[in-house]
Amino acid sequence: MGQIFITYYIIINLIFKNMKKITILASLALAFVTLTANATDKFFYKIATDKDPGWTIQDAGNFEGTPGKEYYQAYNKKNGGRMLNFAYPESAWNGIDLDKLPNKTYKWSMDLNMSTMATRSDMELTVLPVGTSLSDRRNSSHNYHWANKNEGEDFFFRFRVVTAPTEANGDFTILINESPVEQTTLNADGTTTVTAADKVWPTTTNPDSLCTLKSNVKYTFAVEVNTETNVATYTILNGETVVKTGTHAYVCDDRIGVQTLSMNGTSVHQLSNMGLSYFVDGVIAENPSVDLFWVEGTERNYFAQFKEGEILHWKQLGNLDQDYVDPSLSYTNGEEYSVEFGQAKEGRNFEGDPDTEGGQKIITCTESGTLLVWTTREDDETNKSDVISIDVVCEVENLPVPEAIISNVSEGYGKEYTLKVDNSNVTLKPSITIVYELTENGKTTKGEAYAGDKIKFSDKGSLKLQSADLTHVRECYGRSEEVIVENNTEYSKAVFANYAISKEEAEGTKDGFTKAEIVDNSNKSHWDRIYSTQSYGKNAEGAIVVNDGTSELTEIKTGFGFYDGSAIGTDNAKWPVQQLNAESFATAVAPLVIEANEKTDATWYLFPLEGLVSYQTGLTNVPVTIDTKYTSDDANKPNFYVVHTIGGYDRPDKGDCNAYTVVVAGEAYSLYRYDTAIKDVTVYTYKGFVEGSGATSVAAPKAVVEDANAPIYTIGGVKVSTTVPGKIYIQNGKKFLAK
Predict the structure, then answer these.
(1) pLDDT tens digit string along 656-685?
(2) How confident is the model over 257-286, as pLDDT tens digits?
(3) What is the structure's pLDDT at 57?
(4) What is the rounded average pLDDT of the residues 686-709?
(5) What are phi and psi of 449, to 5 degrees?
(6) How far apart are CA 73 and CA 70, in angstroms?
(7) Which residues of 425-451 are buried (b: 16+ CB within 10 A; e: fewer)?
(8) What is the pLDDT, as a whole number, of residue 599?
(9) In the chain, where the domains are located
């Protein structure tokens, strides 16, 4: 290793002695090739491509990820700039002493192939330090994640596409390691005015900061971090050809913690060879990749991958009478076993993999303990990798208990329940089937459903639910406890309030209101789209396109037509509203209750055809409640109010943004922000309820002696057998906080 860096410094000296004969770029490229020619990257953390490695995805509904042996494919199906983030776990740096690394240098790398590149310029890549949370705006907002703000002012490497391809899959240009600049406007007197608080990428023709890349070509992005000089040297390679190289003097933590990829809209990204490494001399036995991929009862199966020229070793955990792929093999607890590269051709389907040359082995554990896995070189068994240590728990894992959340209410016994089950804390996050029994009028219907599915009652009855693993040939996880939802309370509609006035009402005079006008010349909230003549529909290929009358479309959606679509973004994008007066605020929003304060004064409007809106960007997640006179006096029979909202994104080129939220009377609904309108609200009370009877508190139980074994219900009336600390439940007709 020392000889490599001596060669590096000799070359640097030659650069400065022969500046007229060789360019800086060529010299750095030569230095890079010489530096790495006799060295091997030893990964101390590598991101898997053949499974979901734990991405944090923005707008996951428009994302499609496909794991694979060669690369992980990320398809951003819709909006541009949506983010695919990876936070390196704390364990990635376990055992790594930066001061003891060769030349105190390590490397971050990623291969990226834009196999399908749309004519857009949304893509950005940023490599950030340890300690940067995924809630930092640089990671959580596709518009600003490159900006120097929030938790830190620095980075190791970043680029942004500044020139999109002129046609699909064409060349594109990136801007590297530049800092955002303020948005300014040049005034008539020659001075400039800052026009926006957020900064943007600069416009530059400096060739040192620009690099043109090709679509459908795999490029390697490598960043060598020298922790002694605090310099991050980036290199972009096409195969072995250096395309671009440069440096950035960083001032943050020495360790890389997050890589943030802002995906190009409607494009396909192929990612591979991602991770953290350092240089070592010669060929080494590399750490094997070992990941849990299959759980079945008390068994845990790990997929180990290693490289050609290596032997895989492991200490067996538990006895295994018969290998799944090769029945002639058996394993004994505590014994060491090994397999050569060419003999390890197993696939994740527990069968031989004819497409691999080797280096794939399933290790099955049947007892809890610590699994030890390592490799050695075939030609030198003293050349040994680090020993990978994995804590293994071989116990039956039961699935979580499902829930039935009331998502709509109607008069009588009519209710709609949305099923919910959270698999995020289940090993490998399996698909969970919810087995149910719906009983109405003495008739029972059995079925299977999934989270998000809805089950409706039209009459009195009950719903029994249980989580099960029915997606595998055998059930690999234990079933959850059963829960029973009792639908035995009849409801009546107490009041309906509609806040969506007509255009004529918005333009007229209304008691308690002031006639006003909203002008949106900056596409602030997307209300400007719905009030225009803008029209979209779905073509034969299923794409959403402009409805210009030249082709046959389905599912056509057109704005309200208050003004022509060409007015969007101008002062002519305006519509009439009724502004709520402070003195009549409480009456105007009834039966809702919105606590007035300095932010709510003079900022609430009735938007025509849409509803009640708080039109200011600084007001978010406003707590909205219902008049306390509708609060139930019987905790076993909660009253409800249904909030019907519609979003500013309910524009012709988007989907339906109508939503109905059922809230227990006495609890708050959170109004998101200025681009959400409350269109109407309906209050339902149980039959026989007297208004005001439960306004101050829940009635005391009628029985003097409480039954400690009485059934327990959620606040929504779902019977449960276990409670979660911190949540409110009902027992013996009283609310209590579970501990």
Answers:
(1) 788 899 999 999 999 888 889 999 999 999
(2) 999 898 888 899 999 999 999 988 888 898
(3) 84
(4) 62
(5) -145, 180
(6) 10
(7) ebeeebebbbbbebbbeeeeeeeebeb
(8) 47
(9) 38-181+206-281, 289-392, 403-488, 496-686, 700-739
Q: Please, what is the angle between helix 24-37 and helix 2-17, to 10°?
A: 170
Q: Residue 353: how many CA atoms within 13 Å on its side-chain side? A: 20
Tell me the Cα Rg of the chain: 31
Structure confidence at residue 695 (pLDDT)? 61
Which among 47-56, 344-353, 434-443, 552-561 has the top mean pLDDT?
434-443
The 10 Å Cβ neighbour count of residue 148 is: 12
Q: How far apart are CA 731 and CA 551, in angstroms?
A: 61
How many helices (H) and strands (E) would you count in the chain? 6, 50
How far apart are the C-alpha atoms of 231 and 272, rounded to whole Å? 25
Say if strands 415-420 and 403-409 run parallel, antiparallel, or are unpaired: antiparallel
CATH number of 289-392: 2.60.40
Residue 102: closest CA among 342, 361, 282, 311? 282
Say yes or no: domain 38-181+206-281 is CATH 2.40.360. Answer: no
Quick one: pLDDT at residue 342?
Answer: 95
Whether 11 contacts 30, CB under 8 Å: yes
CATH class of 403-488: mainly beta
Q: Name the token pair of 315.
A: 């200490």
Tell me what pLDDT residue 622 has: 86
Q: Averaging pLDDT over each range in 146-155, 410-419, 613-622, which range is the top one? A: 410-419
Is there a shared CATH topology between the 289-392 domain and the 403-488 domain? yes
Q: CB of 464 within 8 A of CB of 475?
A: no
**Would you state the structure tokens that stand for residue 569, as one six-digit string?**
């973004």
- In sequence order, the 6+-apart residues with CB closer than 8 A to the CB of 174 are 159, 160, 161, 162, 210, 211, 212, 213
561: tokens are 């037509």
651 pLDDT above the threshold of 90: no
Is the CB of residue 175 less than 8 Å from the CB of residue 159?
yes
Q: Is 442 helix (H, G, I), strand (E, B) or coil?
A: coil
Strand partners, 83: 262
Which DSSP helix (H) or strand (E) runs through 637? none
Q: Which DSSP helix (H) or strand (E) runs through 556? A: strand 554-558
99, burial (CB in 10 Å: exposed 0-12, middle 13-18, buried 19+): exposed
Both tokens of residue 431?
Answer: 């698909």
Evaluate whether 573 touches 606 at the Cβ level (below 8 Å). Answer: no
Q: How far apart are CA 661 and CA 594, in angstroms?
A: 17
Whether residue 638 is preceded by a cis peptide bond, meaning omega within 30 degrees of 0, is no
518 token code pair: 């909203």
- CA-CA-CA-CA torsion for 146, 147, 153, 158, nearest 10 degrees? 20
Q: Give mean pLDDT, residues 299-317.
A: 96
Q: CA-CA-CA-CA torsion for 716, 719, 725, 731, nearest 10 degrees?
A: 90
Q: What is the rounded distance in angstroms from the CA atom of residue 612 to the CA atom of residue 678?
A: 5
How far is 626 from 669, CA to CA, in rounded Å? 9
10 Å CB burial of residue 475 (0-12, 13-18, 19+) is middle
Question: Which residues make Cβ contacts (< 8 Å) with residue 704, sequence separation at least 6?
Answer: none
Provide the 3-class DSSP secondary structure of residue 104: helix
